[in-house]
Write a structure and sequence with these properties.
It is built from eleven helices and no strands. The chain is mainly alpha-helical.
C-alpha cells in the first residue's frame, strides 16, 4: 500500500517536472505575466494612496495606509488564487498547441494522479509569483504588516488553494471540449468570480443577486479572512467563520471537479475532439 502511494506520488511529480519544463520553454511569457502582476498590484496601491486627493477627503496617514493594505491584500490574494484557476485551463490549451494531449491521456497514469500533479505544479507557480509580486510592491510602496497574524494568513492561503483546486480542475473542461474558444470561456468564469468575490471592495456593496454569487465563491471567504488576519491581527479562532465555508467549498468542488473532468475526457475521446490541435 505504502509502495503504491509512493509510486503514485512519483508519477504526480513527473507532471510537476513537465510543467516546469514548459515554463522554461515559454520563459518570456512567465516574465510578461510576472511584470503584469507587479504593475497591476502597484497600480491598485497607487489608487489607494491617491484616493484622499481624488475624493477630497481625509489624508490621515493611518487611514491611507489601511486603505492601501486593504486593496493590496485583495489584489495579491486574488493573484494567487487566480493563477491556480487559470493555469489548469492553460495547461490543457498548451497541450493542444504542443500536440501532446492525446499522448497524455493515453499514458497508463490514473487521471487523479495526473490532475494532482498538475495542481501541484500550479500551486508552486502561484506561490512563487505571489511572493515575487509582494516583494516588488513592498519595495515601492510602504506596507505596514506590524499587526498581521502570519499563521492565520498562511492557513487561509492553504485552505483557499485547496478550495480553488476543484474549480480549477472544472475550468480545464472548457479547453478540453472546445478547442477554439474553451480558454476564453474559462477566463470569463474567472472574471465573474473576480467581480463577486470582493477583491477590491466589500461584497456588501454588490447588488443582491451578485451577493448570492459571492456566497458560493471561496475567494470571498479567503480574501475576507486574509484582511482580518493581516490588517487586524485576527487569529485562527477569529477567522474560523471564513475558514469553514472555504473548506466546505473545497470538500465539494474537488470530487465534483474530478467527476466533471472525467466525464469531459470520455466525451472528448468519444467524439474525436482530442486529435484537434490549434
Amino acid at each position: 500500500m505504502i509502495a503504491d502511494v509512493g509510486a503514485q506520488l512519483g508519477l504526480a511529480y513527473a507532471f510537476v517536472e513537465r510543467e516546469v519544463a514548459l515554463s522554461k520553454r515559454y520563459w518570456a511569457w512567465e516574465i510578461v505575466w510576472l511584470v503584469y502582476g507587479i504593475v497591476t498590484s502597484l497600480s491598485v496601491a497607487y489608487i489607494g494612496l491617491a484616493a484622499p486627493t481624488i475624493a477630497g477627503g481625509s489624508s490621515d496617514p493611518a487611514v491611507v495606509s489601511r486603505l492601501v493594505l486593504y486593496l493590496l491584500v485583495g489584489t495579491i490574494t486574488w493573484r494567487f488564487l487566480g493563477l491556480i484557476f487559470e493555469q489548469m485551463a492553460e495547461t490543457i490549451a498548451w497541450e493542444r498547441w504542443e500536440g501532446t494531449i492525446e499522448y497524455t491521456f493515453m499514458a497508463p497514469v490514473p487521471r487523479v494522479t495526473h490532475l494532482l500533479g498538475m495542481c501541484g505544479a500550479t500551486l508552486v507557480r502561484a506561490l512563487g509569483f505571489s511572493v515575487a509580486i509582494l516583494a516588488a510592491v513592498a519595495f515601492f510602496v510602504p506596507v505596514d504588516l506590524s499587526h498581521a497574524n502570519p499563521l492565520a494568513a498562511i492557513v487561509l492561503l492553504v485552505v483557499g488553494a485547496v478550495a480553488f483546486v476543484g474549480l480549477a480542475i472544472a475550468s480545464a473542461v472548457f479547453p478540453l471540449l472546445w478547442t477554439e474558444k474553451g480558454l476564453q470561456m474559462a477566463y470569463i468564469v474567472q472574471a465573474v468570480v473576480l467581480l463577486v468575490s470582493g477583491v477590491y471592495y466589500p461584497t456588501t456593496i454588490l447588488p443582491g443577486w451578485m451577493q448570492i454569487l459571492s456566497f458560493i465563491s471561496p475567494a470571498t471567504y479567503v480574501i475576507r479572512g486574509m484582511r482580518d488576519a493581516l490588517l487586524d491581527g485576527a487569529d485562527l479562532a477569529a477567522v474560523w467563520p471564513n475558514l469553514w465555508p472555504a473548506l466546505l467549498v473545497g470538500a465539494i468542488s474537488i470530487p465534483l471537479g474530478m467527476r466533471v473532468f472525467l466525464w469531459a475526457e470520455r466525451h472528448a475521446k468519444r467524439t474525436g475532439r482530442l486529435k484537434r490541435s490549434g
